[in-house]
Structures are given as structure tokens and as C-alpha cells.
Sequence to fold (324 residues):
Amino acid sequence: MAVATVVVIAGGAFAGSTASAAEARMETAGTTDPTFSFAVLPDTQQEVLTSSDPRFLNRTNWLVQNRSALDLRFVTSSGDVVNWDSPDHAQYVIARNAMRPIENAAIPYALALGNHDTQAAGVGGAARDPARTRELIRDTSVFNQYFTVSRYRAVRGQFEAGKVDNSYSTFTAGGVQWMVLTLELWPRVAAVNWARSVVAANPRHNVIVVTHDYIDGNGAIEQSAGYGATSPQYLFDNLIKQYANIRFVFSGHTGIAANRVDTGVNGNKIYSFLQTFHSNSTNPVRLVEVDTAANSLRTWIYAPYNNRSFTQYDRSFTGIGVVR
Fold:
């Protein structure tokens, strides 16, 4: 691995982290760097309302510029990438263009879909047709025009052909295997069953589940299925807690930021994080640093647009139980 370059942005050198994350790392033949990171974008729906808003693109450019310092291996999103669709699909164009730095840098990514990423959301973000919301929540045709398997780069399987709504991507980092499993909002039972089969078939992968609604602003698992099919509690009971290799869950939709730790039926710890924000002024991103040698994780939230750190949401955990 090349020596990391610290990029000076917003008047500071690699803001939003302690010095250890920005230190140069070197990897020699026969050795494996155990420390790497991945990024989780929050609800970006407020950043795509006008083409003059620079915040979404600023964030992805910052991630690419700091890729080496972070040893960034994957980028995901907890949903509501856009706010609503329009005949010219203007918000999707803004979001797609904002993700191009990630694509051009060949960093794999996968975006979970929120309610605003479906045809259920109309102009202003309100229900497009209240009588058909349950039907329209599954109409993701426009999203799938702008975000595809080829753009995501690392997709290994999908619940439905031609759709990224429920899909999984894989990557290797820290000397172990990882899977990012994105699930539709309040998923259908068949989608949950598909996810169960994927996780069960890949027991040596450390699984990162990303779905739009899971925990609330207080860190409690949500109980309502909204206008979908199953509740977050159903997802926990039937998927999340059932498999020893599920490590993390990330979600948005409600609240600002929160976290919780659960114990699965196999005794494994499951670390869940919320990052929503709905910011009108800056562009937070959650960064997660994993050290497979120390069996630890550290996460923090930083907004590169105005060099702002949200230190109240910093969390560190040891003994996370990495599957090897």
C-alpha cells in the first residue's frame, strides 16, 4: 500500500478523526494491514434539491481525496438518496453526478433505498398518491435507471434481476471477507428469506446490513412496518439476530444519530448505527474504522463542507468478534 497523503481541506489537515486514522500506512509483501474504513452516507435528500448545492459532491470528492489516509474500501448509504422524482428526474441526475467521483476512483458502493427513492414520494416529498402508497413503495424503476449493478461494481447477487433494491456486494479488507447486504425499506417476507439464504451461504463473510429504517433516534428497534411489509423488529427477529456472522446494521429515516448493541442467538455482538441528519447546511458522513487485529471498531461523523465534527456521536468498541 502506498504511503497515505493527508489532504488539507477547510483549513485543516484531515479533519474529523484522531491522528491515528490519518497516519501513513505501509503494507509490505507478506503482511496484511488490519485497519481499514468504510463510509455510510446519511439521508442526502436535502442536498439534491438544486443543481447549485455543492454539498453532496463535496462529500464524495472529500472521500476520494482522503481515500488513502482512511484506507477507504467501501461506501454505502442508508437511503433517501433523493427527495422526490420529477419528469426530468433532476434529483436523480444530481445524485448520480455526485457519486461519480466514487465510481471514477473505482471504490465499490451500494445505496439502500428509502421511501423518497421510490414512486411513493411526490413533489415536495409528500405522498404521490395516498391511496396507492403501499403499491408505489415498491416502484423503484427510476432509481434503478440511475444506479445499477455496473455502477456499484462489487454486486454478487440480487433478489430481483435488474434491481439493486435487495442486493449484496463483497470485498476483502483487513485480511478477512466482508459483505454489504442492502435491503428494501420494510422488506417483503420473500426478500427477508432471500437475505437469510445469502447470509447462511456465506458464513465466512462479516455481514454489514444496510436498510432505511431500523432503529430510532433513541437507539430502539422500530416496531412499525410503516407502509411496507415487515417491521424492523421482524427483521431483527428473523435475520439480524439469527446469524453469527452479522456484524453491523446501518439505517436512517428518523432521528439524527444513535447506536445500540445486541447479542445474537449465537452469542455474537451486533452493532447498529443510525445516521439521518436531514441537514440543510452541511454534509455529514459516518466513517467506520475496523481493526481486525485488535478486533475493534471506531466510528465518527464528520462534515467536510464546513469542517464540522459531531464528536457527541463518536463511539469505540472492542471484542467485536470478526469472523475469519
Notes: The CA atoms of residues 227 and 281 lie 30 Å apart. The longest strand covers residues 176-183.
